[in-house]
C-alpha cells in the first residue's frame, strides 16, 4: 500500500485554476484505492462531506472554504499504459496534456481534440469534456466517444466497479457519476501517421492560443451552451456584458462565457457576475443558463 498524505486547513486557492478558495477541513492526496477508503473513513468519523477533486480547472471554491474532506488522486493513478492495439489504460490523475502527448508519440489518434484543455483525465471523464471539431464544426467531440470502460470507486458502497460505456449516463458536460470516484479508464484510439496527429493537435492548440496568451486565471466556460446555435458566450455578449467587472472578477473581453480573476477576486465577486449574466440572459432571451462550473 502506498498510502495517503493529509493536510488540514489547506487553501483551495492553491488548488484551483481560478486561484480562489479558502481552507478545507482536510485535504487528502490518495495514492491508491485503500487511501481513498481511508479518507472516506476519516470523513465519516468527522461527520463531514467528501469531494473528489482533479486539477481544479472547472471549479469555483468558496472564499469561506470547504468544511469537508477533499480527495485528490496521486501518483498511483498517474499512468498511461498501452494494453493492446489501440487500447490504452489511463489513470484518473493523468494530466490531459500528457495523455494527448503520449498518445501522439505512440502513433495513436483519437484524443487530439483534448489538446489544450487543462485538467486531469479523471476530471475530463467526470465532466465528459468536449469541444467542437476543428474540421467539421457541426460535430462535437466528447470524452465519451473514446471511452471503452471506466474504473470507479462507489463512494456509498465503497466497492470498486468497472462500468462499460453503454452503462454510463454520459450527457453534455456530465457523466452522471456524482457518487463515484473515477479511478481510470480504458480508451480506444487508432493508429495514424505521426504527422497527421501533430497537425490536428496543433490546430486545436492554435484555436486556444488566446487563452494561453493572456495568462488569465479562469475555470473555462461558466455556463453550458443552451444549444449549439446559441452559445452562452454569444447570449451574454449580446446583453452587453463583455468586460463587465465586479470586484476582482471580470467577464472576459475575449470570450463572454469566461469569468476571469484579475488578481483579487473573491468567490462572491464571481457569483455576482454569474447572477448578473443569468438575469440579463433570462430577461432578454427567456433562457435559463445552467452552470457548467462546479461550485464547491
Ligand atoms: C482555460 C480553460 C479552458 C477550458 N476548456 C474546456 C473545453 O474546451 N472543454 C471542456 O469540456 N472543458 C474545458 N475546461 C474545463 C476543464 O478543463 C475540464 O472540465 C477538465 O476536464 C476538468 O478537469 P479537472 O481535473 O481540472 O477537474 P476539476 O475541475 O478538479 O473537477 C471538475 C469536476 O469533476 C469532479 N472530479 C474531478 N476528478 C474526479 C474524479 N477522479 N472522480 C470523480 N469526480 C472527479 C470534481 O468533483 C468536479 O465536480 C476548460 C478550463 C479552462 C481553465
Q: What number of domains? A: 3
Q: How many strands in all?
A: 18
- Identify low-pLDDT runs: none
Q: What is the helix fraction of residues, given as a range?
A: 25-40%
Indicate the multimeric state: single chain
Strand content: 25-35%
Largest sheet: 5 strands, antiparallel
Provide the gyration radius in Å: 19 Å
What hetero molecules are in the model? flavin-adenine dinucleotide
Categorize the overall geometry.
globular
The total of helices stands at 7
Q: Could you name the CATH topology of the largest domain?
A: Uridine Diphospho-n-acetylenolpyruvylglucosamine Reductase, domain 3
Order of helices and strands: EEHEEEEEHEHEEEEEEHHHEEEHE
**Gap between N and C termini, in Å?**
30 Å
User: What is the level 1 CATH name of the largest domain?
Assistant: Alpha Beta
User: Major sheet: order of its strands?
Assistant: 6-7-13-11-12
Class inferred from helices and paired strands: alpha+beta
CATH arch. level architecture of the largest domain: 2-Layer Sandwich
Mean of pLDDT: 95
Amino acid at each position: 500500500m502506498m498510502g495517503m498524505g493529509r493536510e488540514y486547513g489547506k487553501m483551495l486557492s492553491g488548488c484551483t485554476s481560478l486561484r480562489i478558495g479558502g481552507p478545507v477541513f482536510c485535504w487528502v492526496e490518495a495514492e491508491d484505492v485503500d487511501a481513498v477508503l481511508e479518507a472516506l473513513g476519516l470523513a465519516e468519523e468527522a461527520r463531514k462531506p467528501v469531494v473528489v477533486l482533479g486539477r481544479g480547472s472547472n471549479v469555483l471554491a468558496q472564499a469561506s472554504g470547504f468544511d469537508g474532506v477533499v480527495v485528490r488522486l496521486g501518483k498511483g493513478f498517474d499512468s498511461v499504459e498501452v494494453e493492446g492495439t489501440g487500447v490504452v489504460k489511463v489513470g484518473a490523475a493523468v494530466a490531459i496534456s500528457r495523455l494527448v502527448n503520449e498518445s501522439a508519440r505512440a502513433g495513436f489518434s483519437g484524443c487530439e481534440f483534448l489538446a489544450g484543455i487543462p485538467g486531469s483525465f479523471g476530471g475530463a471523464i467526470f465532466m465528459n469534456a468536449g469541444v467542437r471539431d476543428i474540421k467539421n464544426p457541426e460535430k462535437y467531440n466528447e470524452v465519451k466517444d473514446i471511452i471503452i470502460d471506466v474504473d470507479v470507486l462507489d463512494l456509498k458502497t465503497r466497492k470498486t466497479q468497472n462500468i462499460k460505456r453503454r452503462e454510463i449516463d454520459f450527457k453534455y458536460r456530465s457523466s452522471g457519476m456524482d457518487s463515484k470516484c473515477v479511478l481510470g479508464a480504458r480508451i480506444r484510439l487508432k493508429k495514424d501517421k505521426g504527422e497527421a496527429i501533430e497537425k490536428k493537435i496543433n490546430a486545436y492548440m492554435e484555436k486556444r492560443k488566446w487563452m494561453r496568451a493572456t495568462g488569465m486565471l479562469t475555470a473555462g466556460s461558466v455556463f453550458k451552451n443552451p444549444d449549439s446555435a446559441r452559445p452562452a458566450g454569444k447570449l451574454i455578449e449580446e446583453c452587453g456584458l463583455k468586460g463587465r467587472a465586479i470586484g476582482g472578477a471580470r467577464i472576459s473581453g475575449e470570450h463572454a462565457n469566461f469569468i476571469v480573476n484579475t488578481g483579487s477576486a473573491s468567490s462572491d465577486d464571481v457569483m455576482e457576475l454569474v447572477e448578473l449574466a443569468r438575469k440579463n440572459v433570462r430577461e432578454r432571451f427567456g433562457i435559463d443558463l445552467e452552470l457548467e462550473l462546479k461550485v464547491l
